[in-house]
Structure formats: C-alpha cells, structure tokens
C-alpha cells in the first residue's frame, strides 16, 4: 500500500506509539482488503461503547490510549441512559464501568453523543461523496445509501484509528466499483412505517452482503422509513448500501441485476404473523433512535392516555434536549424517554420475557443479544400493546 | 528452515509452536483470565496459548475478540507471536493493539509443523524460522 512521507513517518513511530499502532491498524486492514492508499475522512462514528458488548477487555484498551482525535468523532449508544440508569434497572457496578468507558472516550476528544443515528443530530458529519469511517451498521447504511457518503462498516479499533489519524484505507464502499447494485427488489405493495423494517428483515436475509436496488410503488418513503429499512437489512444480512429508485442518490454507473426478487403484501404480513405481540411484557420504540418527527407521532398517539406496560422510547440526548415538550408529553402517559442507549445494547432488556417492537433490526438482535422474545408490529400496534388494548 | 511471510503487526519473538488447523474465535474459544482454550469443539481444547507461537489459519467470530487478545497480553497470557495463513481484521487488529508480532501469507504447510517445535517470527524482516526441521 502506498503511504505518503508523513504517513510513513507515523507508521515508523515518529509521532509516538499510539499513533504508530493506529497507523499499523489502517495499513494492516488496507493490506487485507487490497487498498492502494489512505484517504482523509470527514467524520468518525465509533462502535464499542456499551460496556455490555466490549466488557473489561475493551474498556482496558480504550483507557490505555493516549492522544486526541483529529476529525469530528461521535459514539454509538451506551448500555444505559447516562442520567436515568437507575430508573432503567441498571446495576450500579455496570453503571460505573459504563461511565468509565464514556470518560475514556471523552479523554480522547470524542464528542459524547451516544447515538446510532448521528445524522439526525449533526448535519455536518456527512455529505454526498464524503469519505467517512463509521461503525454502527444502520448508520453506515444510511450514510452510504441515503446521504450518498462513502464508508465501510468499521470495527471499534479501526474507527478509533481513523479518528486519531484522520484517515482510513481506501477500499470497499469507498470505491465506485463496489457501489453498483447486485440485485433488484420489486416491492408490489404500498408500504408504511414498520413495513420498511419488515421488508429489510426479509431482504437482508436474501441479499446478505449484496447491494439491493429497490423499486417501490406508492408513497415516497420518509427518511425515518429509509432509516428502518437500512437498519433491518444491516442486521438480518450485512447490507451496507442500497438504492431506492428515484429516492436515494443513484448508482455511480451502469449496472445489471443478476437477479430480481419480488416482495408483496403477503410476505410482509408473514413477518408480523410470525412475531405476534401477544404476551409482551414491555414495549420499546426507537431502534434506530427516534427522530423528532417520531417523538411527535408517539406523543400524539399517547395523548391523554396511560400505559399499562413499560414503554421505552429511545433517542439521542440532543433530540430529547431540543424537544422537552415532546418528552414531557410522552412521559405524561407513564412511558419513559431514554437517551444514550437502546433496547438492543442495554442489559436492562434482559429482565423481560418478551418485548414488542416496530423495528426489523431489533427483531433480529433481541433474541440472541438479550435473550428476549420479540413481537413485531406498527408503531400504533406497539402503543396499543403498551396501553393494554391488545 | 526459513520461510518468507508478510508483516501484519510488527515485532519479533520466538517460542514453542502451538499449531491448529481450526480458525480461532478469541471471544468464546479462549478464556481471557487463563489463556486456556475452553471450547470443547476446538482442536486446541484444554491447551494454554500463553507464551506460544500460535499458528492457525486465521480468526473468526466477534470483533470483541480483538480486545480479548489485548486483555490476554496485559495479563501475560498471550501468545508471543502469531502466524496466520491469511489474517482477517479481528486477529490483525488484536495483535496490533497488543503489540504481538503477527505475520501471514505463508503456505499451508506451516500447519503441519509439530506443536512444541521452536519457531521464531521476525515480522519486520518478513521471516519465519523453524528450528530443528532442516
């Protein structure tokens, strides 16, 4: 791999041991994936934040690092609401370790916003054509597909390496040649809301790591719906880039689908039928993190009502802080708006038997990562379950 | 015998070989507190990887495996060096952040070296030396 004189110097240790190792990570990955050179990144989003996932091993590594990030860098969700963890039922021992983890990142100059949807709170992190080093699979999908930026799905250390060096290796989704659709998905149904999560759940399993090109009919999907679609495909498969005809930025050149798959109302409804909400003892919304629009919708559905079961609404702290009246309206019903975390990465989920959700991504992860059964429905159905109407 | 290889993580070390044809998932296969291989389905089950030159085809499994390698190193329970047929990101990143020499792109014949044979890895020179097999 080609290194500039400055990069070579860092690789040889001229700027200290931490940077030398970080450069070694970038070069090793570049070699493994056949990168020609490094490329500067506009921003970094770092996974490996929830203490539940990284454990003592990860915390030790992050705490030992020296130095400071050189590009805007933000974090994935943590294992708890950093302020209201007690209310969530998080144990003190875990809370201390989680706080230590966040402090270790803060010391490196990372902005302490814990969210899987950074694009909802900072518009300046990614634009069309920008190279990024993002980790969270749903954010990677959104950046590549909806924004038209370029990022691979980074692991925790390689994202931190990119943050400290300001560069990443040029391979994979940074290159046009890997950004062409590999198959076509015809959707013969009018979709709304959680249907996009169900669609992603189905398509990810078929496409695996391919690049699907969707032809939809009916209403143009909202940004929240694209967010749900990408998140589900990144979880049930490892889709990091997709296209929607006349909606997302177009592919970078001519392409031919090797295969076309068709999804109709029947297939979508089968997902709901396979994961019914009955018997759920908790309801959670906000995977990926709720936008302000979603908070508004939830507040509207809960207006004047009281929940009978725990209802979590997960979002970024910045969004909650900007919309205190929406948070208050939601909590008036007895529901809780939790920030910095979500039902997938928090150990607080583990005390439940079955969780009702409206997310194709959570549907994939809850049984394996939290040992909790999942029921899937629309946002309205989820709220009905929380209100004891179903 | 000397073999050319490709450097992934810098450094050099020598030690007794521990060889397996099974890929290793450091999260799950190896106990970070003891350095023992704890997965009964793994060829190296019940063996300790500490202080060895660990020779295996490559890594697999969760990316948290990189941190497990780091934790092993901090407790002096890590291999002194590692040799892969083809490195993948989990082991590569784990070796780099831990300062464990790692090389790859060697012929599969390396997996026939007997465990216990003295092996030297010099990542910076791109060389593996196997003693007592000439």
Briefly characterize the structure.
The complex is a heterodimer of chains A (390) and B (134). Chain A is an alpha/beta fold and 390 residues long.
Write up this protein:
- The complex is a heterodimer of chains A (390) and B (134).
- Chain A is an alpha/beta fold and 390 residues long.
- Chain A has 3 domains: 5-176, Aconitase, domain 3, CATH 3.30.499; 184-272, Aconitase, Domain 2; 275-386, Aconitase, domain 3, CATH 3.30.499.10.
- Chain A is built from 15 helices and 15 strands.
- Chain A has a 5-stranded parallel beta sheet, with helices on both faces.
- Chain A is globular and about 65 Å long.
- The relative contact order of chain A is 0.13.
- The model of chain A has no long low-confidence stretch (mean pLDDT 96).
- Chain B is globular and about 35 Å long.
- In chain B, helix 2 packs parallel to helix 3.
- Chain B has an 8-stranded mixed beta sheet with strand order 1-8-7-3-4-5-6-2.
- Chain B is of the alpha/beta class and 134 residues long.
- Chain A binds chain B through residues 21, 24-25, 28-29, 31-32, 48, 53-58, 60-61, 155-158, and chain B through 6, 8-10, 32, 63-64, 66-68, 70-71, 74, 87-90, 92-93, 96-97, 99.
| CATH architecture annotation of the largest domain in chain A | 2-Layer Sandwich
The CATH superfamily of chain B bears the name Phosphohistidine domain
Shape of chain A: globular
CATH fold node name of chain B: Glucose Oxidase, domain 1
- List the secondary-structure elements of chain B in sequence, H or E: EEEHEHEHEEE
For the biggest β-sheet of chain A, the strand order reads: 13-12-11-14-15
First-last Cα distance of chain B: 6 Å
How much of the polypeptide of chain A forms β-strand, as a percent range?
15-25%
Low-confidence stretches of chain B: none
């Amino acid at each position: 791999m080609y290194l500039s004189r400055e990069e070579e110097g860092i690789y040889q240790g001229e700027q200290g041991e931490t940077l030398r190792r970080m450069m070694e990570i970038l070069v090793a990955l570049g070699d493994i994936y056949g990168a020609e050179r490094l490329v500067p990144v506009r921003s970094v989003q770092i996974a490996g934040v929830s203490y539940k996932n990284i454990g003592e091993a990860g915390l030790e590594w992050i705490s030992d690092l020296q130095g400071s990030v050189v590009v805007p860098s933000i974090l994935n969700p943590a294992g708890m609401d950093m302020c209201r963890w007690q209310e969530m039922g998080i144990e003190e021992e875990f809370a201390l370790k989680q706080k230590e983890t966040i402090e270790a990142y803060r010391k490196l100059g990372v902005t302490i916003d814990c969210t899987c949807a950074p694009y909802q709170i900072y518009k300046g992190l990614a634009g069309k054509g920008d190279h990024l080093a993002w980790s969270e699979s749903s954010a990677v999908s959104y950046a590549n597909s909806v924004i038209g930026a370029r990022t691979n799905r980074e692991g925790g250390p390689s994202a931190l390496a990119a943050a400290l060096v300001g560069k990443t290796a040029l391979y994979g989704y940074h290159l046009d040649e890997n950004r062409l659709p590999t198959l076509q998905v015809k959707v013969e149904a009018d979709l709304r809301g959680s249907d996009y999560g169900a669609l992603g759940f189905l398509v990810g399993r078929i496409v695996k790591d391919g690049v699907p090109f969707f032809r939809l009919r009916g209403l143009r999907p909202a940004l929240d719906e694209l967010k749900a679609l990408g998140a589900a495909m990144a979880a049930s498969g490892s889709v990091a880039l997709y296209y929607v005809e006349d909606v997302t930025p177009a592919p970078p050149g001519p392409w031919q689908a090797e295969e076309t798959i068709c999804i109709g109302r029947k297939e979508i409804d089968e997902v709901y039928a396979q994961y019914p909400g009955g018997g759920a003892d908790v309801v959670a919304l906000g995977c990926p993190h709720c936008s302000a629009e979603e908070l508004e919708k939830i507040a509207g559905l809960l207006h004047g009502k009281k929940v009978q079961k725990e209802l979590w609404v997960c979002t970024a702290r910045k969004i909650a802080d900007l919309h205190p009246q929406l948070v208050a309206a939601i909590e008036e019903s007895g529901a809780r708006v939790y920030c910095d975390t979500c039902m997938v990465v928090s150990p607080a989920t583990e005390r439940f038997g079955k969780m009702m959700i409206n997310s194709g991504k959570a549907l994939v992860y809850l049984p394996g990562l939290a040992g909790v059964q999942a029921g899937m429905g629309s946002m309205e159905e989820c709220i009905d379950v929380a209100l004891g109407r179903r | 015998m000397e073999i050319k290889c490709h450097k992934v993580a810098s450094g050099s070390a020598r030690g007794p070989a521990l060889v397996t044809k099974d890929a290793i998932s450091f999260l799950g296969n190896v106990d970070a507190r003891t350095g023992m291989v704890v997965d009964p389905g793994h060829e190296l089950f019940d063996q300790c990887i500490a202080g060895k030159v660990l020779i295996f085809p490559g890594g697999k499994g969760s990316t948290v495996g990189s941190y497990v390698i780091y934790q092993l190193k901090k407790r002096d329970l890590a291999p002194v060096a590692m040799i892969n047929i083809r490195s993948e990101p989990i082991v590569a990143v784990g070796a780099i952040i831990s300062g464990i020499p790692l090389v790859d792109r060697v012929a599969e014949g390396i997996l026939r070296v007997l465990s216990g044979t003295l092996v030297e890895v010099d990542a910076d020179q791109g060389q593996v030396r196997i003693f007592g097999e000439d």
